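Rotation project, supervised by the postdoc (A.L.). Task for the rotation student: set up a whole-complex structure prediction and record inputs and outputs verbatim in this book. Inputs entered:
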Amino acid sequence: TQLLEQSPQFLSIQEGENLTVYCNSSSVFSSLQWYRQEPGEGPVLLVTVVTGGEVKKLKRLTFQFGDARKDSSLHITAAQPGDTGLYLCAGEDYKLSFGAGTTVTVRA
Amino acid sequence: EAQVTQNPRYLITVTGKKLTVTCSQNMNHEYMSWYRQDPGLGLRQIYYSMNVEVTDKGDVPEGYKVSRKEKRNFPLILESPSPNQTSLYFCASSENRGYASYEQYFGPGTRLTVT
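Outputs recorded:
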């Protein structure tokens, strides 16, 4: 059983559409990280959220940490083909635990 | 350029033939770890090391060994590989974690197939 559940598992959208990826857990985390992984490469950190309710923006990407620090979401506005990849969330308590990931495909 | 390197990138081997996957980082990081990535299961930690000569088991350590004789290197050893160890392996490094959220820097991955 995954400590962190990500949904949906797969997401395919047209360029210009918006999308949201969810990361949920029954556990409380001291922080939560989001990574993006492209084929043939290792994951790369996008953002770390630390405070419950925190919202961080990275260009067209908006990350939110739930008030109770058990869940997080990633919203992409006006998705582009370059946003294609595997998005992973990772929660930290005394160690880092990863979700299984959401594979996002943005069609041109 | 700051990076984590792994070798080999691809490896096909047979059951029982010992192998080593090397990992090296040039960022002077104290913390290093190994993960395996399987479809639907995400990244699972195999072993980690807080510093030289300090290693500990992660979530799925069975069938693996590691060593940390130098700060920059953290090899993963499979003494007797089995087909269930077929997977994509990642080495990662970061500043010493403690309880802070330090960025993990990942290598490019090693795809291992055990027949």
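Student's summary: Chain A has a mean pLDDT of 94.
Supervisor addendum: The CA atoms of residues 52 and 69 of chain A lie 5 Å apart.
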